[in-house]
Structure formats: C-alpha cells, structure tokens
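Request: When convenient, would you put together a sequence paired with its structure tokens?
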Amino acid sequence: MKTSTAPTVASASRKIEARFIRKIEQFRNDEIRLVMRDRVPSHEVACVNWVEYPYAPKVTFRIAHSDDALVVMFEVEEEHLRAVAMSAEANVWEDSCVEFFVENPVGEGYFNFEVNCIGTMLAAKRLSRTEATLFNVEQMAEIRCFGSLQKAPIDSRGAGQKWWMVEVIPFSLLGLKRAPQSLRCNFYKCGDKCDRPHFLSWSPIDKPEPNFHCPEFFGEVIIA
C-alpha cells in the first residue's frame, strides 16, 4: 500500500454536494452499500495536518441524503486494524476509527459521530472537546451503523487491509424536521493507539497539535 511521507495540507475549507436518494434509509443494508458505491461520488480524507504524524492510510467517504436522513459511507485501507472498544462510551478514537462531525444546524455547538472498524460508535452533542452530552440509549438506537467486519475485537497487521462502514443518521437527531439546504461538517480518520498513529481530515485544520474539535475549520456539504 502506498502511504504519504509528507504533509498534504490544503489551503481552504472544502465544499461538496450530498446526493439525494429518495427514502434510502428504508433500504436494506446491502442495498444501501451498493447504491452508495455505484451512485454517490467519493471524496478523499487526505489532509495530513501535523508533520509529526505523516502516516496516511487510504480513506474516502461518500455522503447522500433523503428527506429524513443522512447516509455516510467510509472506505479505508490501512496497515493495522485495531479495535478494542466494545461499548458506546469507550475510547473508539484510539482504535482504527472514522469520524463525522457536523455543526449544530439549529443552535450552538456541534455533533460528533465516531465509529471504530467493528462498528462501536460514540455519539454526542458538544460545545467543545471537553463539554459534551453523550447520546442516550434511545438516540443511539435511531442510528443505523453497519460495516464489513464482525463485532469482535481485532488486532491485525499487514499492508492493504480494507474495511468499510456505513452510518445512517436521521435529521431529527440534529434537531431538524427535514433536510436543510446545507450543513457544515468535517470527516476524519484516526488511530491514536494504532502502530502508526494518524490524524487525517477532509477539510484542513490549522492547529498546532491534533484536534478535530474545531468547527471553525469545517467544510460545507450542500444538500442537493
């Protein structure tokens, strides 16, 4: 697998469109994956914002929406698959992890959805990195999350290891009754305790040390 050895920080935040797919949240899991792969363009999560962490696994995401939900699909290729976190309040970001952050469209703060490669998810509404209200059991049950790996601890090494993850997030969890015109978001890949720690973003971040909790650097997703 080809990896980056130098930082690749873009100069400005990004803007993309989410593809409209009517009632996609009602599709079967296999149907969602096929539709996302065949009809929705992919975007790279490739900004290496901190020179101390040059490793860049290959990561892309696809984003679509219906009138009632967002669908985000990540596809990853990396050298070390690590998944220790098994519960919703565990440190999923220390594992092979992908993350979707979105600014609160109806108030202060933002939401973060973080999931490791075996589907353990942490979700919260936040005012900052340290000020958070975790989603309760009922809210977590509204999120549909499925991927290519079974829900079991994993610690696997070797070039070219691939996995994917799909998240279906109702707009109601963001405080919305229907799809908005746009959302400010960022998409990340991390692995704090992987053999080669890494902190990649879609929209670039200008901070002195790794920190994804910075809405000022979010890009824009147009709800087309």
